[in-house]
Design a protein that fits this description.
The protein is mainly beta. It folds into 5 domains: 252 residues, no CATH class; 92 residues, Immunoglobulins (Immunoglobulin-like, Sandwich), CATH 2.60.40; 76 residues, no CATH class; 52 residues, no CATH class; 142 residues, no CATH class. Helix content is 8%, strand content 41%. The strands form 8 sheets. It has an 18-stranded parallel β-sheet that branches. A 16-stranded parallel β-sheet has the order 8-10-13-16-19-22-24-26-28-30-32-34-36-38-40-42, with helices on one face. Strands 44, 45, 46, 47, 49, 53 and 56 form a 7-stranded antiparallel β-sheet that branches. A hairpin with a 5-residue loop joins strand 5 and strand 6. The two termini are 18 Å apart.
Length: 783
């Protein structure tokens, strides 16, 4: 404390010396460089913690320019971080009016989020990586250019295995097997046999080229393996049935073997443990009803089902093995390995496990668990599941189709979604291990990814792109994905896409209400507050605790329909006064003339004593070339302290010196600046607002002004041009994003914020968020 008072006395002596030196036109700029708190400051370092980004937004206008769309720009996704997302800019746009603005944002901001609100109130959010100083955001869907994908979907929709023959009439010369025939009955090479009545017993095939037709009822009493050789046939005709007394293995492992169940035929409806294995281009043609324990297809075997097939375990493997379901197929577990499965009818299974296969679903497919490794999955109708895992898979959804279930895990997977297709996940979608992409490929129509929660494990592991709407409110953050326009986010339950229901989709019904324009002027309610911190010893050096005046600032324009400002409201919060002299503050609008100001009003009536400013009827300071708006004078008195020698809210907790420091409530008020005509928003952005501190009063010819680095003094400043120029690269005030935790009394900002000096010496390229990393020493930061 004693050191600070001594510094104040020395400052007065130094300041008098400076004035005398100025009168002699002598000034020594080397003094500042040699004695400044930081040495070897890079040239052209501007001390600014903020930057500007020129943003152009093209709204998706479905009302042909009849209404305005509200555009807002945030630093966080307002869907996932509703409480944390800070509004950076706001305006309106339409089909014929793009929204263009210069966004002021903290340096190092990695991503911005642009929200479009339709005339009906529906909101969509896009996100962009901040690179350079210009950015264009386009909410409009794009024409689909991926003709190969769309062609593949159309081909897959009709890609079935066509059986050349499904009707096998019983030859007239067939040898009849009846109830009096022996058991086992051995079929001879080259002959045809028929069971027209009932036969109970065993039947054995011989060496091939044998056909057995069942028109009646065969009750197989044997558990011996039934093996069909080359060109053998087993045909269950209409009205025919085979039942089994014992578990049986049936094999059709040679070329051109056919097992056929006609439309009114029945096979093992008593559900004995019957296992059927087919290979080497053997065919299983089911038009009736079949029950099996295990069904195995391999090495080019074929299944063509138009009837009702029920199987506990269904395995399909090896190249050229094909399954076509045009009927009803129910399986406990399906295993596909390197094969083709085309589903055109109802398909249900507990577990559907594949590897390196192609699955084409043209009907309704229901499963509890799907595990799809590699290969291609084309959904041309509806897939319903409980848990779906994809690894190295390509999943394609045709237009107006649905893939819906409880949870989904994707690893190194590509998902292509045509317009109005839906992926609906009631619980969690997880991205793990390898990067995956979801791409909306509709022709100017959006697809919908609707998910309760997204869990991403890995840097940028998920990419969302194309004409895709993502309905989700729970997500880990922007570091885990890439989102490319026109893909966008919407909050849970707030999808904007209207999709009619059909046999292949539950659809998506929205009822947004009637369209209407915003109420103008709209309030650009920026929630980003800045902290203005000042060292009041200018042009001396002081102790650089940067708490001689601590003020939080916010700027809110009232915006017209053509994105001009009718007025500007400043939100001001005086938090600390560490100065021991009368201190006030003002704002110079460097790009606004006094004639462009209509009126200035204040929400509080205790801001002025009439000692520091002389103002005109507009509320502007007299004798200024630019518009200068007084903000307040005598900050001590506003804080409720009438002795300017007392410092307010600067001593660390427990270290307040009686009679030297006090703790007081912060003081909030607003200053509204009304313009005589609307002005461009970029003239009153935060980076254009020339805030400055004043020491002195209106009765002195000129006064001491302390400006932020890079800003010019007003016409009433007492600082000579040489001093102003020589101190231009140094700092006595800073504007810090958000509400800054300022240093305690007599604690240099270098101690309070260890990264501050590193930031300065890097020329502002490193340690951009130095103000978020205070010292771990509690005494260094005011609390």
């Amino acid at each position: 404390m004693r050191e600070k008072i001594l510094q104040k006395v020395l400052s007065v002596i130094f300041f008098i010396a400076i004035l005398i030196g100025c009168q002699k036109d002598y000034f020594d700029p080397e003094y500042f460089e040699k004695n400044y708190i930081i040495q070897n400051i890079p040239k052209n370092f501007d001390w600014s913690n903020i930057s500007t980004l020129d943003v152009t937004v093209l709204p998706y206008d479905t009302h042909n320019n009849k209404y305005f769309y509200t555009i807002e720009i945030f630093d966080e996704n307002p869907v996932f971080e509703k409480e944390k997302a800070i509004l950076l800019a706001k305006g309106v746009g339409s089909q014929n009016q793009t929204f263009q603005t210069s966004v002021v944002l903290p340096k190092g901001t990695p991503t911005i989020f642009v929200r479009q609100t339709s005339p009906e109130g529906q909101q969509t959010i896009q996100e962009y990586t901040v690179e350079g100083n210009k950015l264009t955001c386009n909410f409009n869907p794009v024409p689909n250019t991926n003709a190969l994908v769309k062609t593949a979907l159309k081909i897959n929709a009709i890609q079935n295995y066509n059986i050349e023959q499904t009707d096998f009439p019983t030859p007239s010369q067939a040898i009849e097997i009846n109830s009096s025939s022996p058991s086992p009955y051995r079929l001879q090479y080259g002959n045809s046999y028929v069971i027209r009545g009932n036969y109970t017993g065993a039947i054995e095939y011989s060496w091939g080229n044998v056909s057995l037709y069942v028109e009646g009822r065969w009750q197989n009493t044997s558990s011996a393996r039934l093996k069909l050789e080359k060109d053998d046939n087993l045909i269950i005709q209409n009205g025919g049935e085979i039942i089994f007394d014992e578990p049986v293995d049936i094999q059709a492992t040679s070329n051109e073997t056919n097992i056929v169940i006609a439309p009114d035929g029945k096979f093992n409806l008593t559900q004995k443990e019957v296992n059927l294995t087919l290979s080497n281009k053997s065919k299983f043609i089911v038009q009736g009803k079949v029950c099996l324990k295990n069904l195995i297809f391999e090495n080019g075997a074929r299944l063509y089902n138009t009837g009702e097939t029920s199987v506990t375990n269904f395995t399909v493997k090896n190249n050229q093995t094909m399954v076509t379901n045009d009927g009803s197929l129910a399986a406990g577990e399906v295993n596909l390995i390197g094969s083709l499965f085309t589903n055109n009818g109802p398909l249900t299974t507990d577990n559907f496990i594949t590897e390196g296969s192609t699955f084409i679903n043209n009907s309704k497919f229901t499963a509890k668990y799907i595990d799809f490794k590699r290969g291609a999955y084309t959904n041309n109708c509806m897939t319903l599941y409980e848990d779906f895992t994809m690894n190295g898979t390509t999943l394609s959804l045709a237009a107006n189709t649905l893939v819906g279930g409880t949870s989904m895990t994707v690893k190194g997977t590509t998902i292509q979604m045509e317009g109005h297709s839906i992926i609906s996940i009631s619980d969690k979608m997880s991205f793990t291990n390898a990067s995956s992409t979801i791409n909306g490929i509709g022709n100017e129509e959006f697809a919908l990814l609707r998910v309760k929660e997204i869990d991403a494990k890995g840097w940028k592991i998920a990419t969302f792109r194309g004409n895709l709407e993502i309905e989700c409110s729970r997500y880990p953050g922007a570091n885990y994905h890439v989102l490319l326009e026109p893909a966008h986010w919407v909050a849970e339950g707030e999808s904007t896409i209207r999709i009619p229901a059909s046999e292949c989709t539950d659809g998506n019904i929205t009822d947004p209400g009637d369209p209407k324009d915003p109420d103008f002027p709209i309030e650009g309610d920026s929630t980003l507050m800045y902290t203005w911190i000042t060292e009041d010893m200018f042009p001396d050096l002081g102790d650089y605790d940067m708490n001689d005046l601590v003020v939080d600032l916010g700027a809110i324009p009232a915006i017209t329909s053509n994105n001009m400002a009718e007025s500007l409201t400043l939100k001001i919060v005086i938090r600390a006064v560490g100065s021991t002299r009368p201190i006030g503050a003002a704002l110079q609008l460097d790009q606004v003339t006094p004639g462009e100001i209509q009126n200035v009003t204040y929400s509080a009536n205790n801001l002025f004593e009439g000692k520091m400013f002389s103002v005109n009827t507009q509320g502007l300071e007299n004798d200024q070339t630019q518009a200068v708006i007084p903000l307040f004078e005598n900050a001590h008195r506003i804080m409720g302290v009438y002795n300017t020698a007392i410092m307010i809210n600067t001593f660390a907790l427990g270290s307040v010196v009686p009679g030297k420091g006090e703790r007081k409530d912060i003081q909030k008020f607003e200053v509204k600046i009304e313009f005589s005509r609307p002005i461009a928003l970029n003239k009153i952005n935060m980076n254009r607002l020339n805030f400055f501190v004043i020491s002195g009063n209106k009765f002195t010819p000129r006064r001491t002004e302390i400006h932020l680095p890079g800003f010019k003094h007003t016409a009433l400043s007492n600082i000579s041009r040489p001093i102003e120029e020589s101190t231009d690269g140094l700092m006595w005030g800073l504007l810090v994003p958000r509400s800054f935790r300022y240093p305690s009394e007599a604690i240099s900002i270098l101690k309070a914020y260890p990264d501050f000096e590193k930031w300065v010496k890097s020329g502002g390229t490193n340690y951009l968020e130095w103000y978020k990393a205070p010292s771990t020493n509690d005494a260094y930061i005011y609390r």
